[in-house]
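Most newcomers find our protein records easier to grasp once they have seen one. Nothing more is needed to start thinking about how sequence determines fold. Here is such a record, shown just as it appears in the course material:
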Amino acid sequence: MHQPQQFHFQSMTEMVEVRAKETPDKEIVSVPDKQFKFTSYTYKDINEGADRLAHYYHDQEGLKVRNVGDVDTRLNTTIIAPSAIDYAIHELAFAKMGHTLLFCSVNNSVAAIAHLLKATTALYMVVHPNYLSNAEEAVQQITSEGGKPPRIVAQAQRQVWRSDEAVEPFPRALTPEQEAPLPVFIVHSSGSTGFPKPIVLSHRASAFNVAGTGFGLEAMTTLPLFHNHGHACFYRAIHSGKKLSLFPTEIPLTTNNIIAAIENARGVKGFYVVPYVLKLLAESPAGIELLKGFDLVTYGGAACPDELGDRLVKENGVKLVEHYGLTEVGQLGTSYRDFENDKDWNYIRFSGPQVKSGVADYLKFIPQSDGGSFEVVVTDGWKGKVRSNTDDGSYATSDLLVAHPTIEGAYKFVGRLDDTLVMVSGEKTNPVPIELTLKGGSPYIAEAIVFGAGKSHIGALILPTELGADLHHRELYAKIAPVIDSANAEAPTHSQLMPEMLIFIPAGTTIPRADKASIIRPKVYKMFEDLIEEKYEKYERGEAALPGEEINRRRLTGEELERYVSGLIQEVAGSTGDLGLEDDLFDYGLNSLQAARIRTTLQRELELNRTILPGNVVFENPSVKLLSGYLEAVATGQSNALRETLDADQMKAMQTLVEKYSHFAEVTSIEKKAPEKLTVVLTGATGSLGAHLLDQLLTLGLVAKVFCLVRAASEKEALQRVDDSLAQRRLAGLRERGHGKVEAYPADLSLPDFGLPSDVLTKIQESVTTVIANAWSVNFTLNVESFEKGNIRAAYNLLNLAITSRCGRPADFFFSSSVSAVAAHAGAINAEVVSVNPADAQGMGYARSKWVTENLVAIAASTRKIRAETFRIGQMVGDTVHGVWNETEAIPLQIKSAQSVGAMPELSESLSWLPVDLAAKSMVEIIIGEQRRPLWHVLNGSKQTTWPTVHKALREAGIDFKVVPPREWMQELRNSSSDLQANPTYKLVDFFGAKYDSEVVTKRAGYSIEETSRASPTIAGMPYVDEAIVGKFISAWKTTGFLQ
């Protein structure tokens, strides 16, 4: 395991600039979009991006900057924005400008924002558009109180800092030594008190705290960057040189989404989370398997429940480590240990591996009156300490720990001296202000005690006064409801009380109190432990009724159910904005706590056929229409009907998308002779087929130029990704070819201008003769609407590019589709025609999106009189020369089971395998050929392979295995090792189970290739994928180590 690096940087700006100078092209952070396509950024990208932003805010927005040598002026700025890569670049940009940046949580109330602005005397407030109204209200509040508010500055858009143009380093005002003692960041305590407290972090302390506290692993975090834990994760990556992948904040935090993010990020060995994420993943076998696959899983920000941690560590072998520290003092210890022999995951060590050297020398453990716990105190002199709260300069943490019974120097966190409740999500609730509001605002409440430590939401014990002693609980709640509303209005969302989480205890009950009449909170919680746990259990089952009410579930259907669901969502979200039936609830602003409340209300108020709704039911069905359809199907026990309803909705959505995108630009009329040579725009060049298409195109003298539009942060990265893709397929690289035919540009295909600089776009528009739309998201779980922005709209934009070409004629357009677009066709043969029946598409969003786009291509051809054609492509396999085949696809993983499981299924199905190089060759033959038709079938139509051929080739390669019936193979796969590194087939156990657990064989229609064979000699002469070609696949896999 990587050993911590020693601290040596004086400032955060120095750290980033030195790293960018040492290893400018090293990728250090990776950020996904909604489709989990990751974009990586290098040290150079981050450093130069910060320079660009600093120049922008100073030159364009007129923000002040620190003068050379000035160590006295304080320039404080607040940022309110979502957690994203842009947030991190802003942190560095303002550090370069000499500002101190306050990270204002987006969950803060207006009052809390105003308080922080006044407390930090902020000059500026950088605001994302989503939070502008709150920012403006906070400014108005400061103004009305006679204060001087900060100037609101709109957050710069991403294109400001993402550029390939050279940028001058932002001028340094101070040396690192001068910067060291100055404040660089301000974080704040929880807003649970109503007035969060700012905590100022200096350059020196920040640089010290992130040095040597990483674990030497490429990792992913789900933590937002405006939380100090997430912020520290980012800078630990900067310091250690180990790439950090961020979970997308615009995507719901569900098990499936986390798994998808991890799989797409690639190379992730560590996982940094709060206990809430551990709880979420532990609810499903797939989530536990994901956690087991990491070299390290760390949590922080809250305590992890013992039962959960024990189940993960002791029963499933998860390498779980607690990250212990505080904002005021930095990281102090971890529970890193010998994972094989030490299962005490919740005992923190203050010396040893993965702990800062010497920290134990600065710690004191103060015994408490209970005789078993100690308060941790950090003494003066510790470099990571930024605040003192004792006369001798120490910081008393209020954290209570107990010593391990046998391991010296190991301590377990058990609570806090103060009353803060740390939720399972890591959010904190201070119960005292809530309790004071309840007691002080109602004559019916004698005592209120808020509970919820380690839970996802809070509740309260309510002791009535004599005035309320004889009231029915329903009447009592009606009396206190206004004060509950008042308490909630002042609290952040995670600290709000739900009426069903109130527990009324009999008037006159004796509450444990200290001599000073304050309640003894631990004793109260112990006294009412059973009642509290019963309340949470009922809440989870939807049986926690409103006070004094009986559970009276209703059966709703159709529009009535949709109106109910819509109203409930708007009520819980506190929004009066329009909510369409198909609007995404996450985009609407729903958070996880609100989703949990909706789920519980649905469980309580609806008749659901005794079904317990999944915890993530709202985000798994993220629209009013989807959620209502799911609920109705559950209530009636008609899962098949639900499937049919969803299918019908999806087919309607397909037709809606065709109509939406069928109105194209007009043909550009330019009197200009069309060029004799081809200038091609190619998307998807970094994939297997795209690489082979590029290879084929570059061998043609007829091709003058190929513009590759790819996902990348810069032109350099775009070109490198294309070159790497060629190398991965063992094809000649761009430098080897030496003719400069290829230009690669970072592009966002969902934008009409593709996000290209205007001069580049003009160059392409003036010369393009051929457009090949070959990029598509490969995700078999999304619905068709999820393919709209990044895929269908992208194809539409590319069609418009072809239509409006100014090369002398409209450009020819070719779309790479899939046989799945018509795989459900009821006939015996699929003809080489575009399907107009959406039911022909296979029942998944991927296939349906291909069907939609096939129709758009046909409409463009007929309405704009251009050559626009579709290649409907079959099952591609490795190439015929080198045998390179993507090892993460289902068929290679099935073949891998011969070795990892020692068995393969006995299958009689014929395999219409199409070598990828021959697919590309046939497509290029048609592209440069004379024949025209709307659609071509690019597949192996007759010379099919069989599984026995594959088995024979494997055995000839020295791999010994047995062939068993499919259901027996499934059983052996389920019983095999879950170590995905040794047995990657295991990760598709559910996928294969859906195929082979049933004995029903689905007969698929065939595909005609008559017309395509006339246009393509390669399709007409397609070879049989025999043992020799299969042997090349096996050889390639052995070279990479996929097969042994």
